[in-house]
Amino acid sequence: MGDPAKAADTPVPDTHWMTDPAWDGITHTRLFGCRAELLHDNLLDLTHEAFLHTSTIGDEAVYENGVLNGITPATETTTWYFYSFRRNFAVGDAALNELLHTSLGEVLDEDLVTLELQERMIASRPESVRDVLIAQDAGVSKARRVLQRMLDAEATGAGASA
Ligand SMILES: [Fe+2]
Question: Has residue 24 been placed in a domain?
């Protein structure tokens, strides 16, 4: 897929924990009915956990383990989300895997419902209405600018740089 000559030579992030037998975990795959940008925004702004995921992860610190967030645009308004949560403790604990699979699946479903509502709102609003960014959106805003610079550079053949 794509032109191999234009592929970046950036090293692939270390995800040894995805296949290392000393680690265990769960995976999920969801097709989100929203643009990939909204999934990026969602992962960059975890302040939504305190009100969207109150019945699931809330504000628990679950990010000290290996987490893979594979976000792949399918169309302009749909996105494949490949998710994996890995841990290097309680390896082989099937009951814990089942609990994690169920609870983290609920988290993804909460995000899916919310992001699809956002997508519908974006599609239904006049083009002149822009996003209103607040202080908590600083990370999201910066990431959007970096991504846009990379897309612009790719489009002009100038090469990508963050
Ligand atoms: Fe979320």
Answer: yes
Does residue 160 lie in a domain region? Answer: no
In a domain, residue 116? The reply is: yes
Give residue-wise pLDDT tens across range 55-103: 665 445 444 678 899 999 999 999 999 999 998 888 999 999 999 999 9
pTM for the predicted model, two decimal places: 0.77
- Measured in Å, residue 51 CA sits from the centre of ligand 1 at 10
Average pLDDT, the chain: 86
CA–centroid distance, residue 83 to ligand 1 (Å):
12
Q: Mean pLDDT, to the nearest integer, of 112-125? A: 95
Instruction: Tell me how far the alpha carbon of residue 130 is from its chain's centroid.
Output: 22
Angle CA(132)–CA(134)–CA(135) in degrees, nearest 5?
A: 160
- Count the domains in the chain: 1
* Containing structural domain, residue 119: 17-130
Taking the centre of ligand 1 as the mean of its atom positions, its distance from the CA of residue 90, in whole angstroms, is 25
User: Taking a C-beta distance cutoff of 8 angstroms, is the pair 28, 48 a contact?
Assistant: no
Reported confidence tier of residue 135, pLDDT bands at 50, 70, 90: confident
Q: Assess contact for 147 and 160: CB atoms under 8 A.
A: no
Q: Classify residue 141: in a domain, yes or no.
A: no
